[in-house]
Specification:
With 203 residues, the protein is α/β, with parallel strands linked by helices. It is built from seven helices and six strands. The chain has one domain: Pyruvate-ferredoxin oxidoreductase, PFOR, domain III (Pyruvate-ferredoxin Oxidoreductase, domain 3, 3-Layer(aba) Sandwich). Strand 4, helix 2 and strand 5 form a beta-alpha-beta unit.
Length: 203
């Protein structure tokens, strides 16, 4: 294990989604892997009005040597990992800039009660326009092929690791997942993780 290079110092990652998607768990996996790789990591989460179904934004700040406040300043994200398209767009509006890299699951989560939801094609185009580079990972579709939408965030995790945005090796994630998902549950989750790695290679 050795510290690899960050593309920025410090590096700011924002994970954007809605309550119930597993934002906090996904961020914990990423933060733990980075600590295991030898980095100093700060993680914090901000919640919308309703934790379940409301916006959830996780901030991960990574450094080789120094400890920083984990919250990302406006316009200072280096990467955005989007678990939901509208929340990804919201994060881009708040934290994005001309150099930001975006990885997003394009499956929408519609507001309860049939509230307004913007056109998905328009959202996709805006994400492309507001990012230096954007990758769309159909993690929910792949999870459904595996038999359950619960694997969505682990597939997205695999895609993020595979994209090489941060110096996290796929091998370093295996023991973290094994500790969180014991026994047979681990088998399906590691399959989901490797599926994410495969998807991003083809994206």
């Amino acid at each position: 294990m050795g510290i690899k290079n960050l593309t920025k110092e410090p590096f700011n990652l924002v994970v954007a989604g809605v309550g119930g998607q597993g934002n906090v768990l996904l961020s914990t996996f990423i933060g733990t892997a980075l600590i295991d790789e030898g980095f100093k990591v700060g993680v914090s989460d901000t919640f919308g009005v309703s934790q379940r179904g409301g916006p959830v934004t996780s901030h991960i700040k990574v450094s080789k040597m120094n400890s920083y406040s984990s919250l990302t300043l406006e316009g200072k994200a280096d990467a955005i990992l989007g678990m939901e398209p509208v929340e990804t767009l919201r994060a881009l509006g708040n934290f994005g800039n001309t150099e930001v890299i975006t990885i997003v699951n394009p499956r929408p989560i519609y507001p309860p009660g049939g509230g307004f939801y913007p056109d998905l094609n328009e959202i996709r185009q805006l994400i492309l326009e507001l990012s230096l580079k954007a990758k769309f990972v159909n993690a929910t579709d792949e999870a459904l092929k595996m038999g359950a939408p619960i694997y969505t965030n682990i597939i997205l995790l695999g895609a993020f690791v595979g994209a090489g945005v941060l110096p996290i090796s796929s091998d370093s994630m295996v023991p973290i997942l094994k500790e969180r998902f014991p026994g047979k549950i681990f088998d399906n989750n590691i399959k989901a993780f490797y599926r994410g790695l495969e998807i991003i290679d083809k994206n």
